Each structure stands twice: as structure tokens, then as C-alpha cells.
């Protein structure tokens, strides 16, 4: 069930948001981020400029934001260190 809401701002209070992006080569990236909130019709994301998610958003111009349920926090912790940018 979905419910559309209209607020000036929204802080949902969960510690983790999952940011899904795609690289130019088609590979997927899921990055746990700890800060995001809404201001009017904008979403503010706390994304590292050094991370792969930021690079993907610059090149592909798309991202999917998922609010993680607290029941899956251990799964998110497991992937947290594997979502960064690979440098050569």
C-alpha cells in the first residue's frame, strides 16, 4: 500500500538509506548511506564524493532510494565495505 504525502520537510529517522545506482558498464551498485532527508520536493543525500555512487550519479543521472527496514541492518553492515569505488 502506498500513501502519497505532501510535507515541507521529512526526516524519517531511520539510520540507513540504500542508494542504488548503475555504472556506465551496466554493473549495479548499492551504497548504504547514513544521511538523507527531504526538503519540499527535493531529497538531500549524504554521499561521499569519493564513492562509486557519486560517480554513477554524475554519469548516469539516476538513482533509486530505499529506506531500509531495521530488521535487515546486519545484511547492510555486511555489504557496507564492498560498495566503494575501485581505483587503479
Q: How would you characterize the overall build of this protein?
A:
The protein has 88 residues and is an alpha+beta fold. The chain is 18% helix and 30% strand. The strands form 2 sheets. It has a 3-stranded antiparallel sheet with strand order 1-4-5, with no helix packed on it. The radius of gyration is 14 Å and the shape is globular. The mean pLDDT is 81.
Characteristics:
6 strands; 88 residues; 2 helices; three-stranded antiparallel β-sheet; alpha+beta
Alpha-carbon Rg, integer: 14 Å
Helix fraction, binned, reads 10-25%
SSE sequence, one letter per element = EEEEEHEH
Strand order in the largest sheet: 1-4-5
Report the sheet with the most strands, covering strand number, pairing sense and barrel closure.
3 strands, antiparallel
Compact summary:
With 88 residues, this protein is an alpha+beta fold. 18% of the residues lie in helices and 30% in strands.
Topology:
Layout: E1 9-10, E2 17-22, E3 28-33, E4 36-39, E5 42-45, H1 52-60, E6 64-67, H2 73-79
Amino acid at each position: 500500500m502506498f500513501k502519497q504525502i505532501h510535507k515541507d520537510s521529512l526526516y524519517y529517522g531511520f539510520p540507513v538509506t540504500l542508494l542504488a545506482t548503475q555504472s556506465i558498464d551496466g554493473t549495479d551498485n548499492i551504497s548504504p548511506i547514513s544521511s538523507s532527508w527531504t526538503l519540499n520536493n527535493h531529497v538531500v543525500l549524504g554521499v561521499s564524493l569519493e564513492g562509486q555512487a557519486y560517480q554513477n550519479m554524475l554519469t548516469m543521472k539516476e538513482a533509486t532510494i530505499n529506506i531500509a527496514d531495521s530488521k535487515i541492518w546486519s545484511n547492510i553492515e555486511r555489504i557496507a565495505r564492498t560498495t566503494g569505488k575501485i581505483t587503479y
